[in-house]
Design goal:
- It is a single chain.
- The protein has 332 residues and is mainly beta.
- It contains 4 helices and 28 strands.
Length: 332
Amino acid sequence: MAFRSVEESSLTGIADAIRAAGETEESLLFPEGFQTAISNLGGKGAALTVTAPAGTTVTVSRDGKTMTRVAGVDGIVIFRGLETGTWTLSITDGEQTASKTVEIVADYATSITFFSATINVTYPAGSTCTVTDGKTTLTAPNTSGTWACKVPNVGTWVVEASGEGIVTITETVTITGTSQIETVDITKRWLFKDGNQYTELTGGWSDNGYNYASYPKTAPIIGSDIRLQLSKSGSGCCIAGTQKTVDLTPYTKIWIYSESTSLGGFSLSVTGSGRNTLASNTIAAKDMGSVTNASQMFLDISSINKSVYIALSTWLNNGGSRDITVLKCWLE
């Protein structure tokens, strides 16, 4: 048998031609790689068309076999000659990665992109803000007080601000899918918001242990908001208050956001050693007056440097009605 030598430059030319025909930039090992690539050109196997972010490196792999392309400006790459079965499709831009599996039984088209969800955070200026899911921790690039944080996956993310002279505040955000956008404000120490009673801090909200003078009580309705409602003849009261004391030392104001059809008789107060009688134990209080629309109001607590109970209350002296809805309550 006669053997004929082949110039390396000739093999390179052949390999380039095979790659051009197969729309690939893969290295081809002679002779096995040449044989496999040529058989793929013959139509053996299926074609996978992938739409990916332009400029990303796109890879399919299965059973030790890997094929790689770079997505052009149109984001489309084609892998030919794929055997039937489950392939792993992945992309990377050098910083981000994403992957998924595709089941190949015939020619197939799919798309893949990077996961992207955003948590827009407002935090105390000058503090360090972090977002973590327990595995990945992201840190704000500066201490400006605002941050559009891009998180790389679904999960429960804890947003925290901390620093010298800053009260450490955390909020939890649940991300369930890509493109989700959530907004968090951790400049506030929440006491109640959107049905969250912040029980770790407040102990929950109820009328348990609270009284207003000797007035008979009507229980508040607490769900997605705090509803103080009275409609009766004679005297009566409706109270919702924290079941634990809250340290007011770092704060100067208690804010509430409420809606009401009440004409007077609505108070935000803080009490000291006991909750039993608001009138006798009150340290500071503010009658919110007549409220007929959504209103945001505050109680000055700048002179209070201890732990207290916080209560919302309404009352009647000579019959009538009260209907007050508190949507949010927080400390600043």
